[in-house]
UniProtKB/TrEMBL annotation:
The chain crosses the membrane at residues 145-168. It comes from the Bacteria. Residues 1-40, 57-92 are annotated as: Disordered. The keyword Transmembrane applies. Keywords: Membrane, Transmembrane, Transmembrane helix. This is Uncharacterized protein. It comes from Paractinoplanes tereljensis.
C-alpha cells in the first residue's frame, strides 16, 4: 500500500483496498479508526469531504470486528425463568438460648443438635429425656473444676520446691550452701566445726554490704538478705576459706546482704565486689588482715584492738573512707595514689601527693597497730580514735 501523503487528497489516488487488505480481510471488514462513517467508506459509500482516508487526519489500519449485537440499555436485567418444578419452603431457624447463659440447654435444643427434619445424624443419638440433658450440663460444669484443681496442685508443688532447704552435699574438703528462701528473705549458715581461724571472701558486689562479728555459738557464719532482695546468697567452703557469692535472685529488688561472723574465730577479710556502701564492724574479734579490693562510694570500717601489726589495704578506690580505731591505737597511713585530704589524730592534710605517709598514736614503737595502705585513689580518708 502506498503511504499517505500530507493533505486531504482524493482517496482513489492514495488508497487501494486490494493492497491494503490482502487475503486476510474483505473491504467490508476494513475500518479507518473508530470514527462514524468508517464502515460506509469500506463498502464504497464514503463521504470523502467529511471522512478523509489520507493526510494527517487519516488512520489507515484495520479495527477489531464490531459487536455482532448491540448492547441493550435495559436495567435491571429481566428476571430469569423459575425452572424449579417443585419449589421449596423456607425453614425457620430454631430459637437458641441467650448468649449470657450458654449452658441453658433444653431438651428441644439437644434434639435439634442430633436430628434434622426427623433424620438421625450419623454418629449421634438424641438424649433420652431431661436426665440426659442434666447429665450433659453436669459434665460441662465439672470440667472447669478439674482444671482448677490441677492448677492448685502445681502451685503447691512449686511453693514446696521454693521453701525447701537447698543444701548441697558436703565432702571432706568442700561444702556448698545456698540461701533458704522464706517470708523474711534468704538465709544461709555453716558450722564452725572447731575452727579457730578462717578467711572470709566476698566475691560479688552489692548495693549495700553490712558485716559484723557476734557470738554465733556453733555457727561459723550467717548470711541473710531481706525479703524481696535482688540477690541470693551462696556460700562455698574450701581449705579454710568461706567464699560468698551473690547471684541475682528471683525478685529483682535491691542487692543488700548482711554477714555475721563468729567472734571466737580469728578472721582474715577480703571484699572483692564493688558496693555503694560498705559497713564493717569488727569490734570484739581478732583480725589478721583486711583487704578492700572493690570500689565503693563509702566505706565505714570499725577495727578491734590489735594483737599484732595488722595490714588494712584499700585497692578499689573510694570516695569517703572512714576508719574508727579502738582507743588510741598506733596507726600509719600510706597514700600511694594521692588523695583529696587525710584527717588523722585531729589534723587534716589536703592535696595529698602519691607516696606520702602519716603516723599517729606512737606508731613505730614496736607495739601492735594498723598499717592502712591506700593503694587506690580516694577523695577523703578520716581516721578517728574510739
Amino acid at each position: 500500500m502506498a503511504p499517505n501523503p500530507s493533505g486531504d487528497d482524493p482517496p482513489a489516488d492514495v488508497f487501494d483496498y486490494d493492497d491494503y487488505v490482502g487475503d486476510d480481510y474483505g473491504p467490508a471488514e476494513v475500518f479507518q479508526g473508530d470514527r462514524p462513517g468508517a464502515e460506509e467508506y469500506a463498502t464504497g459509500e464514503h463521504p470523502v469531504e467529511r471522512y478523509p482516508v489520507a493526510g494527517p487526519l487519516a488512520q489507515n489500519y484495520p479495527a477489531q470486528t464490531p459487536y455482532d449485537e448491540e448492547l441493550t440499555g435495559a436495567w435491571p436485567a429481566p428476571a430469569e425463568e423459575d425452572t424449579d418444578p417443585v419449589g421449596f419452603e423456607p425453614v425457620e431457624a430454631p430459637e437458641y438460648p441467650p448468649p449470657a447463659d450458654p449452658y441453658d440447654d433444653s431438651d428441644d435444643d439437644l434434639h435439634l443438635l442430633t436430628t434434622h427434619q426427623g433424620f438421625e445424624l450419623p454418629g449421634w443419638g438424641a438424649p433420652e429425656g431431661a436426665e440426659a440433658a442434666q447429665g450433659a450440663r453436669v459434665r460441662r460444669y465439672r470440667r472447669p473444676l478439674v482444671v482448677a484443681g490441677v492448677v492448685l496442685f502445681l502451685a503447691g508443688m512449686a511453693a514446696a520446691i521454693l521453701v525447701a532447704p537447698r543444701w548441697v552435699g558436703t565432702s571432706a574438703d568442700r561444702t556448698e550452701a545456698v540461701g533458704q528462701t522464706g517470708v523474711s528473705g534468704d538465709a544461709v549458715s555453716g558450722p564452725v566445726n572447731g575452727r579457730e581461724s578462717a578467711k572470709f571472701e566476698l566475691v560479688d558486689g552489692a548495693a549495700a554490704v553490712r558485716l559484723h562479728t557476734d557470738d554465733l555459738g556453733d555457727d561459723l557464719y550467717r548470711v541473710t538478705t531481706p525479703a524481696g532482695s535482688g540477690v541470693t546468697p551462696k556460700v562455698d567452703e574450701a581449705d579454710g576459706t568461706v567464699q560468698l557469692r551473690l547471684p541475682p535472685g528471683e525478685h529483682g529488688g535491691p542487692s543488700e546482704v548482711t554477714i555475721v561472723l563468729n567472734n571466737a574465730v580469728r578472721w582474715t577479710l577480703q571484699l572483692n565486689g564493688g558496693t555503694a556502701q560498705t559497713t564493717v564492724d569488727l569490734t570484739g574479734a581478732e583480725v589478721d588482715g583486711v583487704d578492700l579490693l572493690g570500689g565503693a562510694s563509702r566505706i565505714d570500717l570499725t577495727l578491734p584492738v590489735p594483737t599484732t601489726v595488722v595490714p588494712v589495704r584499700m585497692a578499689g578506690g573510694v570516695d569517703q573512707f572512714l576508719v574508727k580505731l579502738a582507743g588510741a591505737t598506733p596507726v600509719r597511713v600510706q597514700v600511694q595514689s594521692g588523695a583529696g585530704e587525710v584527717t588523722l589524730a585531729g589534723a587534716t592534710h589536703k592535696g595529698i601527693a602519691p607516696g606520702q605517709s602519716f603516723t599517729a598514736n606512737g606508731w613505730g614503737s614496736g607495739e601492735a597497730g594498723f598499717d592502712v595502705q591506700a593503694v587506690a585513689g580516694m577523695s577523703a580518708l578520716t581516721i578517728t580514735d574510739g
